Queue: 3 jobs
Job 1
Amino acid sequence: MTLPQIGLFEMRRLEMLSNTIFGVAMTLLAYDLPKASSFKEAPTWIGLIHVYAQPVIALMISFVVAGLFWFSHHRRLAVAPEAGRGVVFLNLLFLLSIIILPVTNGLYGGYRLDGVVAVIYGLHLTMIATLNLLLWILALRGQSNPHLLVTAVVPVLVFLLGTAVAFVSPMLAQFTWGLAFLAPIAGWFAERRAKR
């Protein structure tokens, strides 16, 4: 086992912290789901949809977003297993943005069709994606890997577009944000193109 260079941190310690943060944040996403006690009697199908539709849609979007960024985070730590103090602090800022996700998710789940709330949620998703992109740029310094870079750029662009759409139509924004999940496909195309 080689010792890390002086001034570099082993990212495996950050990986352990990030697993905990992502796990807790992803679990807390369900905290704001309505409880059975919100019904005075057995609910009808329409009653269930009325009470649960918005929070469950928000939960699903946020859970998948968090899962994709967890996956990206671990891939990035594997690409750059050591980093300087600045990168470690930037990773901590990225993890802070994940910790806040249950808060904006709860707000979005309660008021998903409100323009202000949808924009706040979109700005938060954009912030997470932008921090992820900055960390990928730092991790890939000196390396040519268009696949990983494109996979990190696409969510930023999609979340920016979705946030702009939220100003006009909060209902359409949720579908626009869903396009961020196509980032791996865009990365695959970038990799194929680079191999030609």
Job 2
Amino acid sequence: MTTQTSRGLAVVTGASAGIGAVYADRLAKRGYDLLLVARNEERLHALADRLANETGRRIEPFKADLGRKEDLSRLEARLREDASITLLVNNAGIGSVASILTGEVEEMDAMIQLNITALTRLTYAAAPSFVARGSGTIINISSVVGIAAEALNGVYSASKSYVLSFGHSLQKDLADKGVRIQTVLPGATATEFWDVAGYAAQKTSSTTMSAADLVDAALIGLDQGERVTIPGLQDLGDWTRWEEGRRAISAQFGNAKPSSRYGLATANAA
């Protein structure tokens, strides 16, 4: 049990298992009090009791289904109003391996609501308070399929591409206001995600990382000032070159005339 001064209240969504539960454990041990958000009340209370006993931190369970507007609104209000909150981990999410020909559109819509809408609304709720205080940290959990878009379900990949792009924009808007933004891109990680997504065999693959290693690496990346953290990427230079290429091509989009490859000038002259 610890008696160290609290580093503030960390909010972790999807906290009852997997990556979220490991974040809860590590942040409590780093001196944060916790607001743990998840749907599974039994698991949530068990985790909260264990961490409170082990760390001496104040751990509050917050039962919520972030796919439900009323539950999401309650958490948004807490983020706006509680000045003790210093860190938000947007981890809650669901995935799929189904193609557009086999997936159910209602399930895809629910995925968008959780992976995109909830994450966005919670970030919008937290950011103004952090800016007002001149400090705060937002960690958004994306995925490597946000780049490797063909790897899994298209809606899932697109939702994680959104999180990555959103993180770049948040950096632009908030970095000079004392708010730290980190976007984490896990690869395959050994959690119940794969059971829900419909491909449980991935949990035991030789290319699958443990949730503990993923979170520990991500937090070290945060300590080191990484804006985008990809724990499974062995050569950071690969990401640096990717980013340099993305930013370089972005400067080439602003042209009033289409490229000559479309032959419009020749066609118009004829």
Job 3
Amino acid sequence: MRILILSLLLLSALTGLGQEKYPLNTFRPPLDIPLVLAGTFGELRSNHFHSGIDIKTQQRQGLPVYAIGNGTVTRIKIGLWGYGKVIYIAHPNGYTSVYGHLQKFSPEIESFIKRVQYEKKSYEVEVFPDYGDIKVLKDQLIAYSGNTGGSSGPHLHFEIRSSISEKPTNPLLYGLEVRDATNPTLVSLFAYPLSKEAQVNRSSKKIQIKFNKQKDGSYLADKVYASGTIGFGVNTYDRQDLAAN
């Protein structure tokens, strides 16, 4: 039994393959550096699931941030916590991109938000420009990466949401590439009898399955004899090529 089969089944369940099609190669990356992640989509945080990806900015601030596609700015917020300085751009195909923890905005947007701050006499502001008032083009500079808000180090928080439901989706489903040719490391493997009469290796209880790593990097498990409905649990971790996390 090849663990590859289990991995594909798990990947299918996690990404919802076959349930929704996402526009590939429509959006460009928000940064012009290799995408290395400090945080992944759906990652469990202290009190929530992470709704985007955190892109490392080489431990620097001030990297140019670009609009991933044509669109219009629908929300700008500046706060001491949360996303800090953040901008939302609605795109014609029904998606909204979000760029958080920014150092500052592009000159045009910075001038707009400065007027709002002076009018409200407040550093912390939130505005919703009328649709079409601040249009942007794909590849256009919109901001510079930073470390504002509830950020523990320089990075860009990036999301792609549904413009209607505001439901976040994994940005990597849209064709953005993160270099990852490093094989996952399998820690342990278990089989679970699920139906009332099910057995695995003549046992009705959960059992641990032994396996060996092959020369090509794949894993080959011992034979499993089963009847009834059974399931598998895989304890594994997967590192990126350019990051240890």
